[in-house]
Specification:
The structure holds 2 protein chains of 2 kinds. By secondary structure, chain A is of the alpha/beta class. Helix content of chain A is 48%, strand content 18%. In chain A, a hairpin with a 5-residue loop joins strand 3 and strand 4. In chain A, helix 17 packs across helix 20. The N terminus of chain A is likely disordered. In chain B, a hairpin with a 6-residue loop joins strand 5 and strand 6. By secondary structure, chain B is α/β, with parallel strands linked by helices. Chain B is built from 21 helices and 27 strands. Helix content of chain B is 35%, strand content 18%. In chain B, the strands form 4 sheets. In chain B, strands 14, 18, 19, 20, 21, 23, 24, 25, 26 and 27 form a 10-stranded mixed sheet that branches. The chains are: A alpha/beta, B alpha/beta. The interface between A and B is medium-sized, with 36 and 32 residues.
């Protein structure tokens, strides 16, 4: 076929290229496949791009078609959903049966046809817990790709939650206002529930509770409770987890708002607040309305909520979860925005492709949640701050040499900020402990790989005997390995300078000049310690960048 | 007859409802509704709906239903004593005496059609046509409705209908009523139409014996040349069993004796033959030949004879060694109802093909025979068909009057016909401009057949060629024989558009036709969806998705009638084009649903059966009742083809009791009764039977002055609201609302073609002394013509709305 392929179906897989990451090997960069087809020029000079976001959820397959343009931002054109229970099989057996796979392929083929109809320019398909927890995930996804031509990217939990969160932040008009007060985000999924806590517009904690509604549903199905026991069993299942959560994270924090992301609750919202203008409603109203529905049979609830009976089995666990959350947090306002993962995917894609500009600083969320993490492990705030300043100064001055971008800069910042957390466990082995802490904690907004990169950078920022770089490469692809090495080199160098809790740095400047990196530190005291430590810490840096770092006090001339 | 043009306008409506008998299968009505109904009439009514998938609806509280039920029982008892005009809240609106049986109501409808045939003010050919229509209507009624009832009786199903009649009781009432109807048909023919045709120079010879010599010779020649070669006479003897008599075919039965006097010898042992040694023989009147044969006239004018008379005259040529004792025409009607178990049918297409073959072999439910037929002959036929006396119709005239449409369609005799109507250009668009840009200017209303159907065909045709069109999606229920829409869809697929078509295979009597062109579409590359399991897709919606400069735009056509360019010339239907975003989104969701994806989270503007529509209607009616109770003016005007849904009627009764003024324009079945004190004294029902078949569905609610007007594909029948996919859509552009109000008003003021339902259930024409005669259909024709004329004068072909002054912001005020 001559010329450019017009539709997805015409394209061979090889023609589909990833937009953000041509390498295509990592999950980090995979933010969508560009079909590299025509883009309609609109008269004003902007472009309208059609984008399909596919959400391979644990009980629902959804696809939204969006129109993206600089002028109008994001506009939903079509929303296609199909029920398919992938979660139950994965959660219980770690695999998906052949029949289910067939079904999935059929639906995906249908989706692809619809994409063809709209002649979408790009799409992104993401899988959540049902895919993630599959033991043979890679083989499964490859099979799906071969049979349907659709590549599904599994999202790590934190990535998935971040997208959900992002879509709320971008779709909910007064989002910034909501989070001014203490707010808990409750993102209810099939496999788990993510609770994120905001204080003064800052993301503090994010916790994953294994209370996904599909999981609860299948647990209940095994237990087969009568109508009488159903409630108490469900409550018990939920309560245990929420109790621990409250003790560890909520403590004395007073939560005012609850923002709930769920597929089925928006229907319920219409019953509580039939007036669509009201965005928030009181938690009391929710509890009261729920009380009237608790006594109903599933069929009655289905009728009342205009919901299919299958969804009622998922709605009830959701509603109970929220009930317990309200009780645990004491929140008095409830927000139930109508968002789905597909929205998050589209917002993410649109943002990365500059169709929309976000008013909310998502990086700040990641940073503040890392700050909270660091606090939890008693990291010194000022020291961490100085290390960050120093590292970033070096990073920024080296742009020409390292060729890294904003995202890598963020990783560096995070690594610097959290570097000392390991000391809380062991003063002697901060590197290993830091690595484990980071790997064991969810950092919302970071992919699994990115988290691993941060952990590796932190670990290697400590100089050990038998310093062996080969060890870093474990589990990292080449690109990530290079990034990690480059960032480690910077961080190491920076740690050589900002180390003393007693000293007060007034600022750090770095400048690349004549093959040397000139680092100027504004410090009243002398730089003896820094200079002494510098020697062993600059080796990697010189090796990586071929640049000689030179440090000096602002007051002194070059030495 | 499965296709288009030949189909009489009234044929497929009002009666094609045999599926109602399938009540015991899956329905969406929940048990609690059944329970609430069962309180009626003090009869032990157990709804046998075995609804595994039962869902939703009326479940707000079972307790409530139980209460209602017990209330109603008490009331029932109280009312039984006497007082009918109890306080509104104490009335059992489901009492059987408040309802008419739907079959009897249908027969009344056919009587109204028949009354047109008796209307001396109508041109003769129109009257002849109407009589033909009553005949084909009745045929379908028997095959579908009567057959269903027979099935119920066989199955021992005794549940009374809403009017309290068991299937058995209904059958006997139907038998009485239809015998009366048939008598009326033939007296109309014999006493009125036949003589008048003759007066006007058209002689139809009813008996071959009355031909003159020349004519006789002509007929005999015709027989030898044309008829004889295609005849297949069949005798019955020991080696030849009684042949199958095909459904609806006209046959001639004869009794023969052998010429050698041996009494044929064949029949001795057979019970089919009579004791006298006669044999039974049968010949089918071939349907490949025209039923009406033109013969040389005696003097001026035209003369005709029926084919069966020609065969009867020459019947001895078929049985050379026998002498023919008698020969009489007869016709059998069989149970033609298709009951397909869709849950089991693996491939719906194959199943329907199979059922089509079966249709010819169903149980005999009606026998028509010449009234002077030989009793001996009749006995043989009766025994063979196992038909009971009350199912036999003795016909005084030609059996099967559907041939009358041929007379009515004859060339010439213009003075005996209603002048044929040419649909006019639409009011709201320039037919020469690009249809998409016309739609962008504002919603467009099409009033067929007063306005042409061309824009609809043009819509699909333009879309098939337009480079920016991505997809065309459409539902098709009944289409014409050589449908330009099908051609355009196929063309679109060949042009690389994504074409999805939902073809309803279950459209009664059109199945065969539908299968054929569904295959054609598939071959062309369209994505064909063969309907939904358990539901008929009756909605009429077409969606064109276009990628325009500023993004995706969706153009939608919604209608009240089928995408059939032929019937659009004599069915009155409404259609609307729009590119409103909320409707576009809904339309997309409709097709997603029809393709098997989940229902949308919510609907913007459209209401769909079977899930949401009934609730929507009940809400709209209830809202008016609410307003009336609050002492505000409340009014409903609704126009459709049939009203027989018990829930809706109950709501209407309650609304009427609350003081809502309700005017219904219902062409066909209406099981609601008017003028019951305290129940329906605020309701009027009128039926318009005219030159065009009234077919549009328009629903107007006063809503405290914020009038809401809806149109759609659904009647107020259970099958529409519960077992079909139907769409109700709002009309929001103010000009269009005004037009529709004018339309309804005209119909409400029609005093020529309207029959008004009386409290006793009888329909009477208005006494129009002192009133200006108004035939609404005629008036609409005049209006359309005037508009077109004005448009021409303007020289642009564009017609502006005469009654509203032009606004500066016309475009922005459009929806």
């Amino acid at each position: 076929m001559p010329g450019c392929p017009k539709r997805i179906g015409d394209c061979k897989d090889s023609n589909w290229k990833m937009i953000a990451d041509a390498g295509g090997e990592s999950r980090t960069g995979a933010y969508g496949w560009d079909l590299n087809v025509r883009q309609i020029e609109i008269q004003e000079g902007g472009t309208v791009r059609l984008f399909a976001a596919i959400d391979v959820g644990s009980y629902m397959l959804g696809m939204k078609i969006f129109e993206l343009s600089e002028k109008k931002g994001i506009k939903e054109i079509d929303y296609i959903r199909h029920r398919i229970d992938l979660g139950t099989e994965t959660y219980n057996t770690g695999k998906i049966s052949y029949e289910r796979m067939e079904e999935l392929c059929e639906i995906l083929k249908g989706f692809k046809e619809i994409m063809n109809t709209y002649q979408v320019d790009a799409y992104r398909a993401n899988g959540t817990s049902a895919i993630r927890e599959m033991r043979n995930m890679e083989i499964f996804l490859d099979e799906i790709r071969l049979r349907t031509g659709i590549r599904i990217l599994p999202l790590s939990n934190s990535e998935q939650r971040f997208l959900d969160y992002k879509s709320v932040a971008l779709k909910q008009p007064n989002f910034e206002k909501i989070i001014e007060n203490n707010t808990a985000f409750v993102d209810i999924g099939g496999g788990s529930v993510q609770v994120s806590l905001f204080t003064e517009s800052k993301l503090m904690h994010t916790v994953n509770l294994r209370l996904g509604i599909l999981r609860l549903k299948s647990k209940l199905e095994i237990l087969k409770p009568g109508a009488q026991d159903y409630e108490s069993l469900l409550s018990e299942l939920i309560d245990n987890e929420i109790h621990v959560f409250k003790k560890l994270f909520l403590k004395k924090m007073e939560i005012k708002n609850l923002v709930v992301i769920d597929d089925n609750l928006p229907q319920f919202k219409k019953i509580i607040a039939p007036d669509p203008v009201t965005e928030a409603f009181s938690a009391n109203d929710f509890l009261q309305t729920l009380a009237t529905h608790r006594s109903m049979s599933p069929a009655e609830v289905a009728k009342e909520l205009d919901m299919s009976p299958e969804n009622v089995a998922l709605f009830m666990p959701s509603a109970f979860l929220i009930m317990h959350m309200i009780q645990a947090t004491g929140a008095d306002s409830l927000w139930i925005p109508e968002v789905s993962l597909s929205d998050g995917i589209a917002y993410d894609y649109a943002e990365r492709n500059h169709f929309i500009k976000s008013t909310h600083d998502f990086e700040q969320d990641i940073i503040s949640s890392v700050e909270t993490l660091s606090n939890r492990f008693q990291g010194g705030k000022r020291v961490a701050e100085e290390l960050v300043q120093c590292s970033l100064a070096i990073f920024d001055s080296m742009k020409k040499l390292h060729g890294m971008e904003k995202r890598e800069r963020l990783l560096l910042e995070l690594s610097a900020r959290i570097r000392d957390c390991g000391r809380y466990i062991s003063m002697s082995f901060p590197a290993e402990c830091g690595y484990s802490i980071i790997m064991g904690t969810e950092i919302i907004g970071l992919s699994h790989l990115e988290r691993k990169m941060v952990a590796t950078i932190v670990k290697n920022s400590y100089i050990r005997e038998n310093d062996n770089e080969i060890g870093w490469r474990q589990d990292l692809d080449e690109k990530s390995y290079l990034t990690v090495t480059k960032l480690t080199a910077i961080l190491r160098l920076a740690t050589g300078m900002a180390r003393s809790p007693r000293k007060k740095y007034n600022g750090v400047k770095a400048q690349l000049k004549d093959g040397e990196l000139l680092i100027t530190i504004d410090l009243k005291e002398g730089l003896t310690l820094e200079k002494g430590l510098f020697g062993e810490r600059k080796m990697l840096f010189e090796e990586v960048y071929g640049v000689k770092p030179v440090v000096r006090n602002k007051t002194e001339k070059r030495f | 007859m499965s296709t288009d043009g030949g189909k009489d306008p009234a044929i497929n409506d009002g009666t094609d409802s045999g599926e109602d008998k399938n009540q015991p299968t899956n329905t969406r009505r929940s048990r609690s509704v059944a329970a609430s109904k069962s309180g009626n009439a003090g009869k032990a009514v157990k709804n046998v709906k075995a609804d595994g998938t039962e869902k939703k609806r009326k479940t707000r509280s079972a307790a409530k239903d139980v209460k209602k039920e017990s209330d109603s029982k008490i009331l029932k008892a109280a009312m039984g004593r006497k007082n009918k005009s109890a306080a509104p809240e104490n009335i059992n609106f489901r009492a059987p005496e408040y309802y008419t049986n739907r079959e009897l109501s249908w027969i009344q409808f056919n009587e109204r059609v028949l009354s047109e045939a008796r209307d001396k003010d109508l041109p003769l050919f129109e009257r002849v046509k109407m009589l033909g229509i009553t005949a084909s209507n009745l045929d379908e009624f028997f095959m579908v409705r009567v057959a269903s009832l027979k099935d119920m009786v066989h199955a021992g199903y005794k549940k009374p209908d809403i009017a309290g009649m068991t299937p058995g009781e209904q059958l006997s009432a139907i038998s009485t009523a239809t015998h009366g109807l048939v008598n009326n048909q033939y007296s109309t023919w014999n006493r009125s139409l036949l003589p008048q045709l003759k007066q006007n120079g058209i002689t139809v010879y009813m008996d071959h014996g009355s031909l003159n010599q020349e004519q006789g010779a002509y007929v005999d020649r015709y027989f030898i040349d044309n008829v004889y070669p295609v005849l297949t006479p069949m005798a019955v003897d020991s080696s030849r069993p009684f042949p199958l008599i095909r459904n609806k075919s006209l046959n001639i039965g004869s009794l023969l004796t052998a010429k050698d006097g041996k009494g044929a010898g064949l029949g001795k042992s057979k019970k089919k033959a009579s004791k006298k040694g006669t044999d039974f023989a049968l010949v089918q009147v071939p349907d490949v030949l025209p039923r009406l044969v033109q013969i040389p006239p005696e003097d001026d004018g035209d003369a005709f004879i029926l084919l069966e008379e020609i065969i009867k005259r020459n019947i001895d040529k078929l049985f050379l060694n026998y002498s023919v004792q008698c020969a009489h025409a007869f016709r059998v009607m069989r149970n033609a109802d298709l009951s397909i178990d869709e849950d089991e049918a693996e491939d719906l297409l194959k199943e329907i093909e199979k059922q089509l073959k079966k249709r010819q072999w169903g149980e005999a439910i009606r026998l028509e025979v010449e009234d002077h037929a030989d009793p001996e002959l009749l006995k043989v036929i009766k025994e063979e068909l196992q038909i009971e006396d009350h199912d036999i119709f003795y016909i005084n005239g030609p059996i099967d009057l559907t041939f009358l449409s041929k007379i009515a369609g004859m060339d010439g005799y213009e003075e005996l016909k209603i002048k044929s109507w040419t649909p006019q250009p639409p009011k709201y668009m320039d037919p020469d401009a690009n249809i998409f840009s016309e739609i962008r200017k504002g919603d467009i209303l099409l009033e067929h057949p007063y306005e042409t159907f061309d824009p609809v065909v043009n819509f699909i045709r333009t879309a098939s060629k337009d480079k920016d069109v991505l997809a065309i999606k459409m539902t098709l229920y009944r289409v014409s024989g050589n449908s330009p829409i099908i051609a355009a869809l196929a063309q679109a697929a060949e042009n690389g558009k994504q074409v999805s078509v939902l073809v309803e295979l279950k459209a009664r009597f059109d199945e065969e036709h539908n299968i054929n062109w569904a295959k054609t579409l598939e071959k062309a590359g369209c994505h064909v969806i063969y309907g939904l399991v358990g539901l008929k897709t009756h909605s009429k919606i077409a969606l064109v998705v276009r990628r325009e400069e500023d993004g995706i735009r969706r153009y939608v056509h919604l209608g009240t009638g089928n995408y059939n360019d032929t019937t659009a010339r004599f069915y009155t239907d409404m259609g609307m084009f729009t590119c409103s975003e909320p409707i576009g989104e809904d339309a997309t969701a409709v097709f997603n649903m029809l393709s098997g994806y989940s229902e949308p989270v919510s609907w913007n503007k459209l209401s769909l059966a079977p899930l949401w529509l009934k609730d929507r209607f009940l809400y709209l009616i209830g809202r008016e009742a609410e307003h009336a109770r609050d002492g505000r003016e409340a009014r409903i005007v609704a126009k459709m083809n049939s009203v027989c849904d018990p829930d809706i009627i109950e709501a209407l009764y309650k609304a009427s009791a609350a003081g809502v003024k309700i005017d219904l324009i219902v062409r066909g079945i209406c099981t609601l009764k008017v003028g019951i004190p305290g129940v329906s004294d605020n309701i009027t029902v009128r039926s318009i039977v005219g030159f065009f078949l009234e077919h549009s569905r328009i629903f107007w609610f006063l809503n405290e002055g914020n009038e809401e007007i809806y149109m759609g594909s659904a009647d107020w029948m259970p099958r529409n609201l519960e077992r079909r996919v139907e769409i109700l859509f709002p009309v929001e552009r103010p000009e269009l609302k005004e037009d529709l109000k004018y339309f309804l008003n005209m119909e409400l003021n029609d005093n020529l073609k309207a029959h008004i339902m009386q409290p006793d259930g009888v329909y009477l024409k208005l006494d129009r002394r002192g009133k200006k005669p108004l035939n609404s259909q005629k008036q609409f024709c005049i209006d359309a013509k005037e508009r077109a004329q004005k448009g021409k004068e303007k020289g642009t072909g564009r017609v502006f709305i005469p009654e509203t002054p032009p606004k500066d912001d016309e475009e922005s005020s459009n929806i």
